[in-house]
Structures are given as structure tokens and as C-alpha cells.
Design brief:
alpha/beta, Rossmann fold, 2 domains, 5-stranded parallel beta sheet, 5 strands, about 10% strand, rod-shaped, disordered N terminus
């Protein structure tokens, strides 16, 4: 961080990279971590995290790469220089996208809007300069999770922004899933309510007919209608349990002999 106070970024990078003129890339290596003297941390904590860096300035890429190697060791990072390439790399979706607002093929908030149009579930952290803070805040209103200032953000600040953005995105996804389940619960509750309203009169009329001493040949059919209606009522009860509107009941043992006996008349008619 000391190298950032009034010192050119290229000079700061030169302290870490033996030859800053060599072509840059985002590949990580154990020997580089050793040269950096990174503290001993659990690499496995971040080894499954996939990060996409969208930045066209090689010096900034080197700096961010070094900060991530020290602050978030083990993170898998990919780099692209343009919005067009970024739109290709977000499928499959990375865990987080570090996005520069000054790309050569995008102006101001265009990159944010287009990436979210490709995948609204992307987790974005904006890279911007201090005099564009209001622009970064507008990106948050559009759908980004956080922003950091390029060239002045410390390793700790970058780690904080990434960590908090991932946590916020995870919370949003959980909340959406909860809302989806609540909606399904309301739908199931409504269906179960209507189904019960239809089945109750059917059971009532079957009981009325059975109580009037019908012919023996009719009793068997009525009993089967009653059985089917009671099963449908049980299904409605399960829907209410799913919706959280009724107590879940204990399961019961199923008798294969009884099931065969009940479906035998149907099979006899279907397969004479």
C-alpha cells in the first residue's frame, strides 16, 4: 500500500514483478507466491472461487492479481480486456466479476448494463477512480454489489469488497429462493382449499346414498368412489402441509394386497 502513495503504479508493480515489460497474464504459480512472501493461509478457503477480471490496463491487472494472491490465496482468476470478451466468459457464471468502467468498447455504465442483461445473477464489483464515485454509486443502483477505487484500494479493502459482495449476492439468492417457495406454498394452499371444497360434497353425497340402503351391486361402486375421494382429500391435506397450513401427519404402512385388491376390478375391465 505504501507504494501507492504518490508513486507511479508501474514503479509499484516493478517492486513485485521482475520484468514489468513482459506480457501480462493472470496465471498463478506457487513460486510467485513464495517470492511475495505471502502469509501462511488456508488456500482451500478460496480455491473454489472463480473470479473474472475485466480490465484493459496491464499495470492494474498486475496489481490486482498480486493483491488477490496475498489477500485471497487460491482464488481462480481469469482476465479479459474488453466487454465483448467478458460477455463470452460469463457463461458458465463466475462467482464474481471485477469490472472496470473505462473499457475501450464500453462507456460509463454500458458494461454494467450489458453484462447484467446477459446474466442478471452476476455478482459485480466495480473498479473506478475516485472522481467517478457518483458513477460507481449509480452502478450499485443498477445491480452491482460494491465498488473499489483503482490504484488506491488496499489489499484489505479489495478483500473486503469481494467478500461482502459474495455474501450479499448469496443472501439475495437465498431470499429469492425463499420468496419462490413462499409463492409455491400459497399456490399449493389455494389448490388444496379448492380441492377440499370440491371433495367434501362428494363424500357427503356418497355417505347419504350408502345410508339409504342401496342395492348390493351399487354399494361396491360407492365404496370405491368413497375410497378415491378420501385419497384425494389426503392429497389436499399433504398440499396444506407443504404450504405450512396444516400439521404434517405420520406416515402409514402400505398393504400391497389391499392395493392389488382395489385395482383388480379396473384391471379386469381394462384387460379382459
Amino acid at each position: 500500500a505504501a507504494g501507492l502513495r504518490g508513486e507511479p503504479l508501474s514503479e509499484f508493480v516493478h517492486d513485485f514483478v521482475p520484468n514489468p515489460d513482459t506480457p501480462w497474464n493472470c496465471g498463478k504459480s506457487q513460486d510467485r507466491l513464495a517470492r511475495l512472501g505471502s502469509v501462511d493461509r488456508a488456500v482451500g478457503e478460496w480455491s473454489s472461487t472463480r473470479l473474472l477480471l475485466v480490465e484493459d490496463d496491464p499495470d492494474q491487472v498486475r496489481l490486482i492479481e498480486l493483491q488477490l494472491e496475498r489477500g485471497l490465496p487460491g482464488v481462480q482468476m481469469d482476465c479479459v480486456e474488453t466487454l465483448a470478451l467478458a460477455k463470452e466468459r460469463v457463461d458458465p457464471r463466475p462467482d464474481l466479476v471485477l469490472l472496470d468502467l473505462g473499457l475501450p468498447d464500453a462507456s460509463r455504465l454500458e458494461a454494467v448494463e450489458e453484462l447484467l442483461a446477459v446474466d442478471p445473477e452476476l455478482t459485480l464489483v466495480i473498479l473506478t477512480v475516485e472522481h467517478q464515485e457518483e458513477l460507481a454509486r449509480e452502478a450499485l443502483r443498477i445491480g452491482a454489489q460494491d465498488f473499489v477505487f483503482k490504484g488506491s484500494a488496499s489489499e484489505r479493502e479489495l478483500r473486503r469488497a469481494i467478500t461482502f459482495a459474495l455474501e450479499r449476492a448469496r443472501f439475495i439468492r437465498l431470499r429469492r429462493e425463499q420468496q419462490r417457495l413462499e409463492t409455491l406454498g400459497l399456490l399449493a394452499s389455494g389448490i388444496a382449499h379448492d380441492l377440499t371444497n370440491y371433495l367434501s360434497p362428494a363424500l357427503l353425497h356418497v355417505d347419504m346414498v350408502l345410508s339409504s340402503s342401496p342395492p348390493d351391486g351399487l354399494v361396491d361402486h360407492l365404496e370405491r368412489i368413497r375410497l378415491a375421494t378420501e385419497r384425494a382429500t389426503g392429497l389436499a391435506r399433504k398440499l396444506l402441509s407443504y404450504a405450512g397450513r396444516a400439521e404434517a401427519r405420520e406416515g402409514s404402512f402400505l398393504s400391497p394386497e389391499r392395493v392389488v385388491e382395489e385395482i383388480k376390478p379396473i384391471l379386469d375391465l381394462s384387460c379382459p
